[in-house]
């Protein structure tokens, strides 16, 4: 624990984020070049996989640091802004995943490092909206998290929830499970006490419009075979039905 605090208090953790920033930019440049021209795809793919390997090592180290109690308090502290660069990385990894899946001769093995990185990022994000500490008021961290999604979406010119929803298309079951858990955590905790069902309906529809609806058929097939997908999907459906019933009751009262 002392070693973790030393890492948090010196430049060690900044080194990882600077490396992520540098390699993420390089990866984005390769993706942009590949999008503009189909030449030298093999070389571009090789350079891309090298960047992804560096990013995987950095994310793995950050995960081990942030999964500790003092590390996680540092991670979620809005003043540190550690959440934004990991969300930005998640967007870039999603883009790289699609490119490798479509262009690699062995996509399953080549995307392993991407999935492991995405999994570690998602596992750090899942508890964030509901993390409780004396220094944070109700919904403060959820508001901070949604604001971080807004910031990255504006910078990347993307839908703010896309980076989470796209992970549902992964072949790695743990990535899918944690993406579902994060979606449920966000939906379950939005809104004021008097209008919770309305706020949940709004952000649920935002997830559906961001691509969640396109993944539903596959998720339902997976849920028939895997309990870890069935449980969060059942939770999603049950609250969806309950919110719809509450909305109907609201209209009846009027």
UniProtKB/TrEMBL annotation:
List the transmembrane segments. Answer: none
Q: GO molecular function of the protein, one example?
A: actin binding
Q: Where is the Formin FH3 domain?
A: 151-252
- Any Pfam family the entry gives: Drf_FH3
Q: Which InterPro entries match?
A: ARM-like, ARM-type_fold, FH3_dom
What's the name of the protein? Answer: Formin FH3 domain-containing protein
Recorded source organism is Panagrolaimus superbus
């Amino acid at each position: 624990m002392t070693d973790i605090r030393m890492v948090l208090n010196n430049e060690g953790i900044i080194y990882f984020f600077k490396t992520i920033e540098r390699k993420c930019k390089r990866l984005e440049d390769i993706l942009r070049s590949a999008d503009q021209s189909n030449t030298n795809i093999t070389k571009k793919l090789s350079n891309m996989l090298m960047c992804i390997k560096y990013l995987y090592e950095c994310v793995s180290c950050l995960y081990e640091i942030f999964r500790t109690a003092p590390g996680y308090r540092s991670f979620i502290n809005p003043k540190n802004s550690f959440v934004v660069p990991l969300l930005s990385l998640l967007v870039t990894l999603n883009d790289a995943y699609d490119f490798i899946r479509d262009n690699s001769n062995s996509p399953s093995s080549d995307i392993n490092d991407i999935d492991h990185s995405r999994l570690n990022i998602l596992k750090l994000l899942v508890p964030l909206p509901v993390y409780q500490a004396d220094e944070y008021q109700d919904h403060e961290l959820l508001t901070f998290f949604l604001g971080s999604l807004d910031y990255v979406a504006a910078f990347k010119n993307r839908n703010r929830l896309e980076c989470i929803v796209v992970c549902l298309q992964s072949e790695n079951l743990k990535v899918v499970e944690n993406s579902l858990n994060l979606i449920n955590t966000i939906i379950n905790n939005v809104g004021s006490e008097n209008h919770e069902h309305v706020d949940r309906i709004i952000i649920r529809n935002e997830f559906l419009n961001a691509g969640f609806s396109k993944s539903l058929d596959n998720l339902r097939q997976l849920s028939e075979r895997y309990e870890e997908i069935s449980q969060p999907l059942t939770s999603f459906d049950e609250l969806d039905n309950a919110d719809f019933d509450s909305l109907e009751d609201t209209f009846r009262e009027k």
